[in-house]
Design a protein that fits this description.
about 260 residues; alpha/beta; Rossmann fold; 2 domains; 5-stranded parallel sheet; globular
């Protein structure tokens, strides 16, 4: 338990450190390529640093601080939770299987709280210019995962606060899922397999399933394989057998707390 707490604290520290580097860079109106040239730290590693996934050495961080005309101690202090500095508003990520209500609830809560709502799969389709089936046919699973990670990084770079509906399979790539959990407050919207299935049927979409019994069996297998990772979310909201308005009200209160 102590190790899990320490790991979580370390992740939060790296996330805050990355946010401060990104804030200073934007304040000086320079892009990552320019900062990389100034600091002699690769653009790829700077991207990892800014998204909280790169554990930078103290010497490299010193180079970055110098390039940003900032004292190293000030940069380190900015990442501490008790420094009196106002933190960025939280990014919220909704995770779960299809039929969990990520889009419906996410849009409703975002509108209510005046937050940007982003559906990651929709963004992938828009920026790639292709529908998801075409992406999988052309690039395969690995290609889709690369696009997913790229777009997630772009969302992080462009938004200090938002509500994101992640794809159901986001947990299947460990790096992408770690990136999500580090930079977002995650909420697992869960329901019984039967309820997931009924909602998918109501949407008129059975892809990639064929036949109700087979589809339900497959859904149970998928849920079973992903439940362990989904359970790593910061919060779990069970929507089974509940009125949509009640779930929306509870989710709104949770997002406001976060």
């Amino acid at each position: 338990m102590l190790q899990k707490i320490a790991d979580s604290t370390d992740e939060l520290y790296l996330s805050r450190l990355g946010q401060e580097v990104r804030r200073l860079r934007r304040e000086q109106h320079i892009n990552r390529k320019q900062l990389a040239a100034r600091s002699s730290v690769s653009e790829r590693f700077l991207a990892q640093l800014e998204t909280g996934t790169g554990n930078i050495s103290i010497l490299r961080l010193r180079h970055v601080a110098t390039a940003l005309d900032c004292q190293l101690t000030a940069l380190l202090d900015a990442a501490e939770p008790a420094n009196g500095k106002q933190e960025h508003e939280a990014r919220i990520a909704l995770i779960g299987l299809r039929g969990a209500g990520k889009t419906t609830l996410g849009k409703a809560v975002a509108d209510q709280l005046d937050l940007p709502f982003i559906e990651l799969t929709e963004r992938i389709e828009r920026t790639s210019g292709m529908a998801l089936p075409d992406i999988f046919n052309l690039y395969g699973q690995d290609g889709y995962r690369r696009l997913e990670k790229r777009e997630l990084n772009a969302v992080i770079d462009d938004n200090d606060s938002c509500i994101l509906a992640a794809a159901g399979g986001v947990s299947e790539d460990s790096e992408t899922f770690d990136l999500l959990r580090t930079n977002f407050r995650t909420i697992w919207l869960t329901a019984t397999p039967e309820e997931h299935m009924n909602r998918v049927i109501e949407q008129g979409d059975l892809r990639p399933m064929h036949g109700h019994d087979e589809a339900l069996a497959e859904l149970k297998v998928i849920l079973g394989s992903r439940a362990h990772d989904y359970a790593r979310a910061g919060h779990i909201l069970d929507t089974s057998g509940r009125d949509l308005s009640d779930v929306q009200a509870e989710l709104t209160r949770l997002v406001e707390r976060l």
